Amino acid sequence: MRRTKPKVRQPRPTRKPSIARKSRTVRPVRKAPSRKKPARALARKKPFAPASPRPAGLSDDLARARLAAIVDSSEDAIVSKNLDGIILSWNAAAERMFGHSAAEAIGKSINLIIPADRRNEEVEIISRVRRGEHVDHFDTVRLTKSGERIDIAITVSPVRDARGVIIGASKIARDISERKAREEHQKILLAELDHRVKNMLAVVSSIATQTIQTTTTLDEFASAFEGRIQALAHAHKLLSKFQWKGTLLTSLLEQVVLTFCRDKIQCGFDKQEVMLPARAALALALVFHELATNASKYGALSNSSGSVRIAWDLKSNGPLRTLRLTWTETDGPLVNKPTKSGFGTTLIEKCIRYEFGGNVRFEYKPHGFRCLIEMNWSTQADKPQ
Amino acid sequence: MPVAHTDFPFAGCRILVAEDTLIVAETIQFLLRKRQCEVVGPFPTVTEALQAARTEQNLTGALLDINLNGELIYPAAHELARRNIPFIFLTGYAAASLADPFKSARILEKPFSANDFDAAFRSAFCPPTPHGTQNGSQNKPS
Description:
By secondary structure, chain A is an alpha+beta fold. Helices cover 41% and strands 23% of the residues of chain A.
């Protein structure tokens, strides 16, 4: 990116040094990317066009004043310096960005805003400027007056005198802290997603391992495994709607249980809204799936007259929540207490006890099966699953 | 029921397990029992895991999920390191996100296969000697 053509420029008047200084920033003004266009595309537009002919009758002073006004109203910091790194001009945006006023900055070394660990960058930049090269959209860090480090992108171009001799550099700095923060946020989100996916795969793989232990045929395995994964998928879908902050108990029941029911009369739920944290939603999805599967095989959902009622009550104590939930089956076939507990009921019991410090009771009354669940969680901690 | 893995010389090991998701904890127990190892735990909270890390005797090693329901397992890991008991972190997080003293700790990334499990075991733990368990590989924080 070597400039070969000396810039066409009128000799500067020497009597008004402040304007003369500002006139050095004329070129960057023209180069300053429009906010509407992607900065990259413009950065590649090289070399800049020589100063376009001014409309006839416009005096030099007027042209300079107009350019100075553009520099001053720019949202990007525009700074010029000589080859020794002494600041020669400092626009209003530079004052806002770095906190030093023009009076404070002009005449000082550019090191004023360069953190100690970035000084070697400046040496490199100056040596490139001396060779007539540009530095385009270089992401770096600068210091404000208060000592805060800010992320900026700088574009540096050599400044030449009327004979084409490089006498300094103009520097345009754009505050990219928002962009950096966005990138950082995105990185965190991706890491979190990655973590969540791996954990979920570990759960899926564990469900497979556990299901294999308790099924005898491949068909049996396939249907049991598929059902459990579906239950998790339902919970997943609901959780993703609320950025994994949680989901409503009623929504979870509708997704997981209603598919086993003829209609909402056969399966009735309480209306009280309970926001379940992600891990409670995932656990309860599996729990409800097991209860509904059992009901549809042996219980109240296995005949036309039976029905299921699900009622609950949530108690709050500071950040602690205690959910008491009853799953009551009525008018199903006559209930016989199973001789040994199946994988589903064992899973429910263990999971509620292990993950939520709760307890589960199964009641096999002749007129219907009942399951009572009590579980606890804190609204303060919820590990992404 | 458990089939002895003849090429897996860890029968009789005592392994502390910290993992907050029951179904995963069950699978870890299943894998350990199949290898004729004794499971200490599993523990779903840092408090319980730390208590066990302090008091359990003759531990061969530990499998520690890093994040137990939002709490980091590091206090228990420090305690194990202090007692020279090797441990393996279980995690879905990238190794780079480990806290500083544990950057070089052994990791078994979730989800893991039975082979990954065995390999991590071999690299971190020493088989028990006939005179009882012996802690070999060091897993101290640097």
